Amino acid sequence: MHTREAGARPGRSEHRGPAWLESPVDVNALVEPLWSRTVDRDPVGRLEVGGVPVTELARDFGTPMYVLDERDFRERARAFHDAFEGVDVYYAGKAFLCTAVVRWAMEEGLRLDVCTGGELAVAVRAGLPAEHIGFHGNNKSPAELRRAVEVGVGRLIVDSYDEIDRLVELTEELGVTAHVMVRVTAGVEAHTHEYIATAHEDQKFGFSIAQGHAFEAVRRIVAAPRLELVGLHSHIGSQVFDTSGFEVAARRVLALHAQVRDELGVTLPELGLGGGFGIAYTTQDSPSTPAQLADGLLGMVARECKAIGIAVPRLSVEPGRAIVGPSMCTLYEVGTVKRVPLDGGASRTYVAVDGGISDNLRTALYNADYSCTLASRRSAAPAVLARVVGKHCESGDILVKDEFLPGDVAPGDLIAVPGTGAYCRSLASNYNHLPRPGVVAVRDGAARLVVRPETEDDLLRLDVGP
């Protein structure tokens, strides 16, 4: 292990920020694509969400807190439903899930994909019809499969030969038929982080088309008397900005679709295209609209089906984070501010807040970029380059790596981070025994808890003692 004297790292200009981050003309201005649609500043400069000032939310519900814009969520869900007319649109339960969100998605015409028994339990409790649920996952337990079959889940997306064997045995025991899709690996590299690219060969999901495993999975399912194969399912990754990466995947999956028809005499009625569409976390991100995505995907599938002489199957898509991601922001209170000298006479302002990697792991896990703003007031101070960090005992406890904040940011101020609807609450932990924040839904000037914040009593309740 090599060591060196502590200090600025040679050859880096990190204190000047990344190339895409520009010093703002007005440090109070909001970059609209990053925020939910009802976010604005009131006349005194306080951030408002759904007509409610964040200072009131902090007073009534505490911080840190996830703030969920119900109107924005519904509008984004409706936009995907309308753009993909005639296509089954599945909301991604893993992005963020609670019973209120399931009901909103259901009321806007969406279905739901889950990947654990816990997510399935939330869907059932929310009253979503089981036939509108797709159950993903590379290692569904026998208990999870039993529960899914018993409640009548609409689509079980199988991911291994072991799972097929379990389903054969389970459906015979219960005397029921299960509707299944085969998760296939198309061998496509999505231009995203390696941990969320899911269609290349060397990873845990799906059956390889190139190696013949996908066709063998189809053959086994067709031979099973109580498994009804309804289609193939492909997913190339997450945080995908356009449809170009889907073209090769769609061609390979549809070729397998035709092979199943020609060699097994089975015409599959459905095709799952996946999705994982991206959102804007910073000004460097330029996501496509639902209409653009629908035009690209549907046109692509129609052309490929015509080229190989098959009818267009019923399609399904999974927008992923693109619905809930921009609909939520996280509100923090500033606890300390440090200005740290760097090389060349520069400095960085460290703004420490009352949350951290326990409520947003993505910066540490994926090296993800986020933005933020001073939320409790307007400032006339010049902008300074800041790093927003948490309160955990980790030097990697960073929430926003680089952002311009007012130079007078101080303890007691509120900071809001946009784009935290997807995976932040889902990945939240109790690291350092910090209770997880609650989720407050806002709409038309009213706020209500949809997930209550944890307390120390919640943590101690699981401790069985000596």
Write a structural description:
The chain has 466 residues and is α/β, with parallel strands linked by helices. It has 2 domains: 181 residues, Beta Barrel (Lyase, Ornithine Decarboxylase, Chain A, domain 1); 255 residues, Alanine racemase (TIM Barrel, Alpha-Beta Barrel), CATH 3.20.20. Helices cover 28% and strands 24% of the residues. The chain is built from 12 helices and 21 strands. The strands form 3 sheets. Strands 4, 14, 15, 16, 17, 18, 19, 20 and 21 form a 9-stranded mixed beta sheet that branches. Helix 3 packs across helix 4 and helix 7 crosses helix 8. The radius of gyration is 24 Å and the shape is globular.
Sheet with most strands = 9 strands, mixed
Question: What Rg is obtained from the alpha carbons, in whole angstroms?
Answer: 24 Å
What is the name of the CATH class of the largest domain? Alpha Beta
Number of domain modules = 2
Average per-residue pLDDT, rounded, comes to 92
Low-confidence stretches: 1-15, 192-199
Q: In angstroms, what separates the terminal alpha carbons?
A: 40 Å
The number of helical elements comes to 12
Short structural summary:
With 466 residues, this protein is an alpha/beta fold. The chain contains 12 helices and 21 strands.
Fill in the keyword field for this structure.
TIM Barrel, alpha/beta, 12 helices, eight-stranded parallel barrel, Lyase, Ornithine Decarboxylase, Chain A, domain 1, 466 residues
Summarize the topology.
Blueprint: E1 40-41, E2 47-49, E3 52-53, H1 54-61, E4 65-69, H2 70-83, E5 88-92, H3 99-107, E6 111-114, H4 117-126, E7 133-135, H5 142-151, E8 155-158, H6 161-174, E9 178-185, E10 207-208, H7 213-223, E11 227-234, H8 246-264, E12 270-275, H9 290-308, E13 314-318, H10 321-324, E14 328-341, E15 347-353, H11 362-366, E16 373-374, E17 383-389, E18 398-406, E19 414-418, E20 439-443, E21 446-451, H12 456-461
Parallel strand pairs: 4-20, 5-6, 5-13, 6-7, 7-8, 8-9, 9-10, 9-11, 11-12, 12-13, 15-17
Antiparallel strand pairs: 1-2, 2-3, 4-14, 14-15, 14-19, 16-19, 17-18, 20-21
